[in-house]
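Throughout this review, each integer encodes one residue's backbone shape. One record appears below.

===
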Amino acid sequence: MNTLSSLMRQIEQLGAARSLRQHIAKVQNGSSKADTDRAGGPLLSRLSRPKWILPEAFTTKFTSKTSKSSLKNQARSPMLALVAVVSLSSTLGHRFYNQPKLDVGTKAPQTIKAPDTASVPDYKTTEEQRKAARIGAVAILMLDPAVNRQIYQELQQFLQQGSDLREAVGPFPFAKSSALSLAAQVYLRGCPEWEWRSILAQAKEKSQTSDRLSLDSPAVAGPTENKSQQDAIAQLQAYSRSVRAEEFQSLTDSISSARRSYLNAVEALEKPLVSGFPQIYDTSLFDLSDAAWQKTQTGMNRAAKRMVAQGILQGLPKEILKEAVKLQVADEVPLESQALAVEGLTAILQPNLVRDREETKQLAELAAQKVQPVMIAVQQGEVIVAQGKDISQQDFVLLDYFGLSRRGVNWLGLAGFVCLVAGAIAIVLLVERHYRLRRRDHLLLLLLTLSAPVLVSLGLPWTSLPAIGILAGGFYGSAVGVTVVGLLSALLPIGLGVELIHLVASAAGGLLGAFMAGRLRSREELALLGVAVGLTQGSVYLVGTLIASAAAGAIWYVVLGTVGAQSLAGLAWSVVAIGISPYLEHVFDLITPIRLAELANPNRPLLKKLAAETPGTFQHTLFVASLAEAAARELGCNVELVRAGTLYHDIGKMHDPLGFCENQMGGGNKHDEINDPWASAEIIKKHVSEGLVMARKHRLPKAIQAFIPEHQGTMLIAYFYHQAQQIAAKEAEDLKIALPDAGNLKSTIESREVREEDFRYDGPIPQSRETGILMLADSCEAALRSLKDATHEEALNMVNKILRARWQDNQLIDSGLTREDMSLIAEIFVRVWEQFNHKRIAYPSAVFTPR
């Protein structure tokens, strides 16, 4: 009896403990508003959640963890910054480690004499003179056959069109010279119609009068008639008196026909004859005889051949070309057509002399080789530089040769340079603060930055700024990339001897690559960016060379070879950057838009396996991805990261596909056969741990791996938790009725204790807005699929309940999502659901009935 009483007291204590745990759970889920307000504290105010609580135990744990991590970061960050300052100062500040105090342009502190007789080569001056000789070498020219063919073709086209116009105007003279003179025929063919009718009327009228009126009598002409008109009338009258009426009518018909053809030809002159040339022909073309036109064509061909053979220079003024054409056609073309020939040839002829690249290059190199090395001779005891005088280049060569330039560490300059480097690093840290870079990201930026001064120190003529810009901009965004390239371009000429034009050209290519790389979404676009970087680098170098050198401006084509080399260098650095970027992404665990797009490709082996082995889970994943992407896009999150992370968040379900209802396809439920909620909960929880194993095996980035545990957080597996509570309660009730053994009863009750932590995921809870959005989308997916004919308000109310439950369960306290975001996310989820659940018209049964 005492044993039974003791056993009953233990049962009551266990029941009280279970009731206490249930009460705490209700308080944690927000059932008690008073407790909620007391437990929230300042942290909840900061997160804009005044009505829901943060459990005290979790708060303590999270605060402790955060502070430890913060202290760890604070302990390591200064060390990494110090390493960056030391390494960059060491590689960039080479000039300050062996800097002569008596350099070119400084004043000599005392009179310095040569300690010995010597003849010292001045390599710098020699190289400058050779470079000037290369640039100043006269270009060798050659005739361009293509231009010559074009000139001859256009000339023949021009002459043929003239012949066609003359043929259209008809033969000339159109009448016998015994009937009408050539001058009269020219006049009658081109005079106005009303004038021709007047002349014809007068000729017919006067031909019928008596012979008392002489042809030369002044009384014949009226006061308004000109000399040509008088001559035409007189000749027509004379001809009409000497022939029959039929012959005179035939002459007037010939004149009328010639006039019609002439007027049509004049209209044709108003149209452009040769494309790209002004109108050259005029009515004087029709006044030339056939012999004169033939001689004109022959003369123009001969003149053009002579001028083409002599060559026409680029930039020759048109006035000079026109004078040369006049001299050529003076003895070849009839006087009456010389003006026409000059105008035609001046318009058709064009420069046909081009630079012979190979010959010019050989001539330039020969001119450079002819430049003898500049030698500076000095006798022992001779004054190299007097006290107070500026040290010239020649003086410095001698001082440096005799070891009198006082080379050493410029501590003051080095200290200032270290401050500049530290300031540049501070600017980069300030810019990248928004992107929350990791220590490994800082290390990668440091290594990329160090590559530029190292390559310059090795003597390479081109810096790696284009590759640095493309990699930094592609990995960390345009702001970080542009900042790094800009600051490095400013520091390089201070600490190292870099040619300014080369540096500016490389910096321009690097800045373009840094600005554009972060905006691109495929390797193909990056390849096109490499071409743009190369063209930019070459163009900037060309412009800089033309501005810096007057000789180069006079013969700019001499530097085209160097410009091409600069363009190829920019393209080559772009190829290097694109080639090593996948390796850097894996080594430093980087997530770029391009890598995320590749990971989201459904043909990836892991995703293909997911679709094949767990088709229901894969369809669930696609719908969740649609919800999460829409919300991420609206909230300004990383959409590519959300898409890729969502596709992989449930890969762990492949370890036991039938353990999840979406893959059972109407078959039996595995958990009904197990009939053990504790074992079922372990199967459900295992999809997180197994998913992490698969993700590590397939080398997914850590940012993608984070979606696997964080999309479940520490949520309660409610179905099996409540099932376990029901089983435990039923067993306890049954044991109250039948108590076969007191000892066995105690062990049975303890083994059936339902602990909430056994039915919660291991976490962590979402640590970013992206994983928080995925948790909410994953929670709402099944509920939204179950809705059929729900209204917008009904769906929105259901989604809000689910989101509120996650908020009250404190799953989103580290995600950065706010109360306002939750309302917006709910609206977006319902909108996407409505798009998927759109209405379709019902087809009549007759459509499916065969004829």
In short: The first helix runs from residue 2 to 28. Confidence is low (pLDDT under 50) at residues 1-76, 210-224, 550-555, 745-751. The longest strand covers residues 118-121.
